[in-house]
Amino acid sequence: MTVQYILLDDSNPEHRNLSIWRKGVINRVRLEDKSYRAYGSMEIDAHDYAAMFHFNVAEVLNALAFISESGNGLDSWDESFLHNSSLGAMKRIIGECRAGIEPDKSETILLGWQDQPVSVAYMRNIDTSRFLAFLDTLMQFVEETEAEGCDLEFIL
To answer: What's the domain count of the chain?
Structure first.
């Protein structure tokens, strides 16, 4: 069987149009706020989005009490909310995940594949130093959210 390997390039508009190319956002919100206002936001680019799942950060965070329409937490492909009371545990989880990642180690990961009409494997390079910097920014965002008494909304 012949398989075509596609290494995703974020600067390629054709790659950005693939369903496998995903990004997200984390909003600072107040669940009791009826105006549904974001008090701050943090973008998750496609590189860090893929790394969050590759390094199991999203999976480990799912141990927290996320609120989502589907009930599947961060894997739900819908909005997931995390109450302020869980942010301390989230910081602990991020720290533990961060400690298990080797800095300066690049990895090529498989994002997905298709068999029809031709066999294609979609790959992505992960720069661990870049992802660790993202986790540091995420940790700071969570700390600020906790201090402000806000909650988090994940749109992944």
So the answer is: 1
